[in-house]
Each structure stands twice: as C-alpha cells, then as structure tokens.
Predict the 3D structure of the following.
Amino acid sequence: MPEKIYMNLIKLCVGAESYEDQASRIAQRVAAGGPDYLPSHVTRMWPKQEADILKGGSLYWVIRGAIQARQKIVRLDEVIGQDGIRRCAIIMEPELIRTNTAIRRPFQGWRYLKPHDAPADLPQSRTADDTLPKELALALADIGLR
C-alpha cells in the first residue's frame, strides 16, 4: 500500500481537561471571531515540511496525556510578534474531530506525526473511545504499538 503523501503535526493541548473542554474553547473563539474566523495556534518554529503538511495534514491534540482529537490544517501564516520575531500561525478548520485515544508522553513544542502513526477518527456516532487501562496503554506506547 503506498505511503500517504501528507504530514501531520502533534501538539500538547495546554489548559484543556477533555475533548469537550477543547471543543468549547474552539466554539467560543469561532463565535467571537465571526463567520469567516478560522482557529489558529501560534508557534515559534516554522515546520520545514510545510508543503507536505498543506497536502492534507491535521494538528493532533494531546489532551491530558493522550491524543483525543484533531483539526484539519488549512494553511500556515507568518506572524511577526511585538519582539520582531517571526512565528508560524497554524490555521485550522473549526471542526474538532474526535480520534481513538493514543497515549503520548509529554514533549515540548510540536512534532511531526506520520499518517500511519496517527490514531483513526472515531465515527461521529461515538462520543468516546474504549480506552485501555493507563498502565497498559503506556506500556504499549513504550514499545511503539499504540
């Protein structure tokens, strides 16, 4: 089977306690921003694999130690801070898509996530994943199986 030609990003979702909490935060920003508003996340580093990200990549959110959701990336915009430093605004679709739960250890910044390593989306009719006990999920993550 051929490798998919796009790349994803993965990022810790600081401050959100659950999928519902993150979805609520996004909805509030969209409501305040108007009908054409697209949510964004500003980061210091610019992805070197920009072209592959823009071919269909998503930003996968790690919430409380596990990937739980993703947002489709629309574009990357340059943002210059008041300090004069160039930053990258990751512009995303407003829809937060629930995914299978995948335990992830803490990390700083963002990381690339290949499509075959990304958890699958949950059907819209499912509001949660059947999760493994945390110890088992961490053990599987340590050996690269989850």
User: Anything to note?
Assistant: The mean pLDDT is 88. The two ends are 21 Å apart (CA to CA).
